[in-house]
Amino acid sequence: MKIMKKILSILLVVMMVVGLAACGQEAQPAATGGNGPNPAAPSEPAQKGNDRLVVGFAQIGQESGWRDAETWSILNAAEEMGVDLKFSDGQQKQENQIKAIRSFIQQGVDVIGVAPVVETGWETVFKEAKDAGIPIVLVDRMAAVSDDLYACFIGSDFILEGQNACKEMARLLNNKGNIVELQGTVGASAATDRMKGFAEELKNYPDMKIIASQTGDFTRAKGKEVMEAFLKAHPGEINGVYAHNDDMALGAIEAIKDAGLKPGVDIKIVSIDGVKAIFEAMVAGEANVTVECNPLLGPQFFQVCKDLKEGKQVPKWVKSEEGIYRQETAAEDIKTRKY
Ligand code: GZL
Predict the structure, then answer these.
(1) So where are the chain's domains?
(2) Measured from the CB, is residue 140 less than 6 Å from ligand 1?
(3) Is the pTM of this model over 0.85?
(4) Which residues pair with 139 in a beta bridge?
(5) Among 18, 141, 220, 249, which has the minimal tally of Cβ within 10 Å of its Cβ?
(6) Which residues pair with 281 in a beta bridge?
(7) Could you tell me where the beta strands, DSSP code E, fall in the chain?
(8) 290 bridge partner residues
(9) What CA–CA distances, in Å, run from 272 to 191, 311, 324?
(10) Quick one: residue 8, left, alpha or beta (phi over 0 = left, psi -120 to 50 = alpha)?
(11) Which CATH superfamily is domain 49-155+295-320 in?
């Protein structure tokens, strides 16, 4: 993860130097790396009208290894596809993402991409983009708006991910046992639907039940904190952990070890994303399953943006294809993982 963050910051600096030199814009404050969001519009409007695609992207933040991989994919694809990218890090705050979208509208970009940190509260600013004739593309998370306010959603079927996680947990527990659930960010479509999918599938296993469920906000630190509380509240009762992402599962693994138990053995671990660190945990026997959620959406995102700029029809949902990875094959699988 540290290497990924290093690559990200180098890539971002290179992009800004090259990009700014190319379009002659004065330097902008760093858009990520903890300097906060970059909602301020640079003085120069986007050079629309030429054939260079100009895209604004309002990223959520840097909360997980998955998010870093997605950011890397978007920065790298912009570089490779010759896109003039305006990138903003919202630090997991919706108001920062909304400010960034307004800034992109002011700059007159061709397309605006956003990974909505939560599902609600987007109608007004999406309407402003529509009135300005700038299409919105939702990346990796949904927004609860009418269909006419966004052109396309590029991302996973979170309900299916939750259903698959439950089936894997049933296999690990022989259809019987108590599960604790680490939810993602409250109000995020990825959390809401992963919870829904798991709960729906759980109805098929009458001897399995969720005895505690709480948000860990998709972060490793909070995942550990919540798991410590679960272990105190339910001593000796927990057979499995279902985490909405790998980062929270990795935090739970730390908490289980601190409690003198063996994660992956005494308590089975099922999570979602497929980041490298969870493969390392599976190789060490400390995690059991990860349901893949592909973050490498950069190329698909900019292809949709190019099609929109050229006036082409785009699908309403560009669905990511994903697999399920288990401890038994992790030592082999890890060799070909890209993130
Ligand atoms: C899923 C994405 C989620 C990941 C988390 O598309 O929105 O957000 O599962 C990330 O790791 O924080």
Answers:
(1) 49-155+295-320, 158-293
(2) yes
(3) yes
(4) 154
(5) 18
(6) none
(7) 54-59, 84-89, 111-114, 136-139, 152-155, 177-183, 208-215, 240-243, 268-273, 289-292, 317-319, 324-326
(8) 271, 325
(9) 11, 36, 9
(10) alpha
(11) Response regulator (3.40.50.2300)
Q: Determine the distance from the C-alpha atom of residue 217 to the mean position of all C-alpha atoms in its chain, rounded to a whole number.
A: 12
Tell whether ligand 1 has an atom less than 6 A from the beta carbon of residue 155. Answer: yes
Quick one: pLDDT band at residue 51, thresholds 50, 70, 90?
Answer: confident
Mutation pick for ligand 1 pocket among 140, 157, 250 (CB with most ligand atoms within 8 Å): 140
Q: Which residue in this structure is represented by tokens 């604790």?
A: 180
Could you give the angle at the alpha carbon of 164 between the alpha carbons of 162 and 166, nearest 5°? 70
Query: SS3 for 306?
Result: helix
- Residue 260 CB partners (closer than 8 Å, separation 6+): none
Task: Name the CATH architecture for the domain at 158-293.
Answer: 3-Layer(aba) Sandwich (3.40)
User: What CA–CA distance (Å, rounded) separates 106 from 286?
Assistant: 49
Distance (angstroms) between ligand 1 centre and the Cα of 67 equals 6
Q: What is the pLDDT of residues 78-133, one digit of tens each?
A: 999 999 999 999 999 999 999 999 999 999 999 999 999 999 999 999 999 999 99
Does residue 141 line the site of ligand 1, with CB under 6 A?
yes
